[in-house]
Amino acid sequence: MQSRIPGFHGEYLWELDIARMQLLALANAAPEQIYGWSPTEGTRSFSAVLVHIAVGNFGLLHFAGIPTSGGIDLYGNLQGDEFARTAAIVRENMARERTITEKQSVIDLLSRSFEAVQQSFGECSFDALEAAVDCFGERTTLRRVFLRMLTHTHEHMGQAIAYARTYGMAMPWPDPLKAFDSVPPAAELRKSSQAQ
Questions:
Q1: CA 20 to 30 Å from 65, out of 105, 131, 132, 173?
Q2: How far is 50 from 55, CA to CA, in rounded Å?
Q3: What tens digit of pLDDT does each residue of 32-55 get?
Q4: Residue 1 maps to a domain
Q5: CATH number of the domain that 77 lies in?
Q6: What is the pLDDT of residues 144-192, one digit of tens each?
Q7: Strand partners for 138
């Protein structure tokens, strides 16, 4: 069993790692042709869902004023009020969803975004997470911005899994529910505990 950092930092990084491992496994296992596919007209393609997760991570780090690892700066020094800067980031992210479509480019961006979140979060002290930041027109804590990254990732991971299953793709990890096939039904367990 892998050792974990104690407390909130370890719990957060553990959850992030689950999403990272599953998303990258899914992205790598997916055939190239699914990358341009979407279940219905007007919805994101499979590649756009993965890019949306990645640029969401980078965008939230930028909103929170956190420099990313490796000098990755997708947005530069944006001018204007908060709404104008937010709109510029959203427009750039939407453009990336349409233009970053090749499988390996998508995987590379997704992987770099997870590395950026992991490193940035790992470098934040508990006190730093309590710092107030502006994000989407609200005053909140840096901790909440990191939680938003995690929930946004899981939200769209579910979307990517649904796309892959609809496409007919098997998941590239074992079905966790199969482990319960050998467990007796609850009714049998209740009978045996009542008999004692």
A1: 105
A2: 9
A3: 999 999 999 999 999 999 999 999
A4: no
A5: 1.20.120.450
A6: 999 999 999 999 999 999 999 999 999 998 877 777 877 777 777 776 5
A7: 135
